[in-house]
Structures are given as C-alpha cells and as structure tokens.
Amino acid sequence: MRELTGAAAAAGPALAALDRRARWRPAELVFWAAALSPFVLFPAYLQLASQIAIAALFALSLDLILGYAGVVSLGHAAFFGIGAYCAGLLSKYAWGEPVSGLLVSALLAGLAGYAVSFVIAGFRHLALIMITLGLGLLLQEAANSASWLTGGADGLQGIDIRPVLGLFKFDLYGRTAYGYALAVLFLLFLLARRVIQSPFGLSLRGIRENAVRMPAIGAPTRRRIRKIFTMAAAMAGAAGALLAQTTSTVSLEALSFQRSADVLVILILGGAGRLYGGIVGALIYMVARDRFSGLNPQYWYFWIGLLLVLVVVLLPNGILGGLRRLSAWRLRPAS
Length: 335
Hints:
By secondary structure, the protein is mostly helical. The chain has a domain at 44-256. 73% of the residues lie in helices and 0% in strands. The protein has 15 helices and no strands. Helix 4 (46-68) packs antiparallel against helix 11 (221-247) and helix 6 (98-120) packs antiparallel against helix 11. Residues 1-10 have low confidence and may be disordered.
C-alpha cells in the first residue's frame, strides 16, 4: 500500500516533466530546418542523405524498444527486411504506388512484430538477445531458400516504383528520394515523440529500470512491451520499404545480422533513450562510412570500430549524452 501511495505522489512531478518535454524547443526547430539544407547546400549528396534518413528511421524504431523499454534485439533487421521485400513484391506483382506500398509494408511488419512480441515479452537480457538473433537468422535463411519469390542471393528483380503521389518521379540525383524519406521520417518521428512523451512512454522507462515492480503500480509490463514492440516493428518495416522504393532493389542484406549490428552501432553512437540519438548517430555513421570507405575500401571498418570505441570510452551515453553533460557542466558555476 505504501508503494502505491508513493508511486501516486511521484506521478505528479513526473507528468509535469513530461508536459515540459512535450513542448518544442528552438533547437529542435533549427534541427529540422537544417535537414532541408542538402537540397541547396549539398545537391550532389542527396542519395547519401536519403540513406541517412532511412537509417535514422530504422535506428528510431530500435530506440523505442531498446532505449526506452530496455528490450535488447539483435534481430531487428527481420522487420526491416519484411518491409523491404513486401514493398518490392507489391511493386513487382501488384502495384508500384509508393505511399500505399509503404503503408502495407509497415502493417505487415507490425503484424509480424505483434506475433513475435508474445515470445519477446516473456524474456529479458541474455535469453532475449539469443531469441532475437535466432529469429533474424531463421528469417534470412527462409528468404534465401524461397529464391523463387525473393530472388535469393541474386536479389529481387523487376521492381518498378511509380512517382510519389503521381507527381514526383524518382530521379538519379536523389531529390525525390530524399524528400520522400525525410517526410516519412518526420511524420513517424512525430508519432514516436508523442508516444514517448506520454504516460505510456513514462511507463516504458519504468519497465526499463525495473520490470518486476511496475505491475505493483498498475502497469501491465508484458502488454506494454508487446505494444511498443509492435510499433517498433512497423516503423522498421517502413524504413525497409523506403529502402526498396528509393533504390528499386531488395537483397538478403536487408535481413542480415550485419544490418542489425549496424543500427545498434548507430544508436550507441548517437545515444540510446534519446529521440534524436538515432538520427544523430545515423548522420555520423553514414557520413563516416562514406568518407572512410573512400579512403580505404578494404579496411574502412577499422576506422568505424575505432570511432565506436572512442565514443563508448569518452561518451558512455552517446554523443547527445556527452553534449548534455557538457551543457550541464557549463551551467553549474552560474547556478
């Protein structure tokens, strides 16, 4: 009874803090305005910018379950690949309209995530890592075996994507690809922001800190894990569909463990448990990969590994966590 009373007393300040966080800050507006700058300042890198937006959306989906709910996944690429293959197969055998294809792909990935969530919600820590890794590997091998449908190791051929909204054709310069990917990223970011800065999002943080005690204050842990896992799977499927639609290619790499590992690295670089962590991490990782692979195509992973080690050692909470600590340190003498 005392626990319930204490929890109720603590809920007031927590909800007030959520209300403050829900307000848009000037830095956020500047950030999204700067996201439009590649159209003017870096027109030659719009293809890379579209890939950054897709990686950012994928990292945001992982952040919902890892950074906020504490659910570790090494097979998150399974939902990314489901979305990619769904969008590719729809454009090849049914219709190539991208927006509806994106919605169907996200829905299918969400349904797959909902089915898997009943298993995920019952495990934590090491067992969860092994289960998600195993499910990802199983799906990749199934896609490889069904070469009559997926194209196997050769990839899915014959993808034909129509103009977005019937107006904007996908061009070689990447203008439409980046605009489309950025618009989808922003809309789903708004959704994730609304979820995280709500009482439901606050309960996810409680589950991350102590999943055993959360039911004592009326928060059904497993049900909420299933909800956020389903949402994260749908967002990952949307990211995969974006990749298929903007590149007109789908391969087994979309389901690979390497992609799951890459998005985890991106999230660690930017800072897990921070809405902008995946976006900042995607920007840094993709630009660094592009630069390092240009310098040394064979050993560029060495520099990526070195970058990751330096960030983890010097900035344990990621780049955004380090910036927050720096700003707090600067303000401390004034207070």
